[in-house]
Sequence to fold (234 residues):
Amino acid sequence: YNGAYFVTHVAGEIRDPRRNIPKAILGGFLIVLGVYLLINLIYVTVMPFEEIVSSERIAADLMGKVLGPPGAIVTSSVVFISAIGVLNAQLLNYPRIQFALARDGLFFRRFGVIGEKSRAPGAAIVLIGALSALFALTGSYVQILSYVAFVIHFFICLAVIAVVVLRIREPELERPYKVWGYPFTPAAFLLVSVFYLGNLVLTRPGNVAVGVAIVLSGLPFYVYWRKRAGIRSD
Fold:
């Protein structure tokens, strides 16, 4: 379900973000959850558990059992096309991070420029595309995912902790959207996350270490840009 929060990165380009962003996040999450559960129900209904575990292309294998070889080919094509859609979404989302950093003086100004015709941060998109291609050449999809899984979820946990901290420090702060079930939902999320992150550390310590090292390698640049922008640590 990673990516439900990506819409916040383009909040500046959304009409009535206070109303539409919560709807987009919750609505998108529920749709993905429903589709995910439905597909998995089909898997366990049609295929034996042993085949599910051993399959490297489970969707294609499923359709191959139902419709024969043509079904497997069509399914593989659909998955390929959907992957292009995911790539498009990533190129819409991630360059906005560099764009926002540049606008705040925390990155090269060139990456904070919007194209006159495209109305998009072209330089930031090229940068993310080039970095993505470089990382794609360094290993398999599963390997690269294992590098970032720990780090991404760790920072999500920090964001959830920030919700609690802000509720305590600034109780009167205007909140267009309040977390449902607070404080139980953040607490439940963090509790589950402790087990998830701990499992990653125990089962894939090397990959976790690589991911953390990549993040830490950016600290000198972070300190440099903060000083250059005149941002105080307090």
Notes: The chain has a mean pLDDT of 85. Residues 105 and 184 are 37 Å apart (CA to CA). The chain has ten helices and no strands. The longest helix spans residues 17-46.
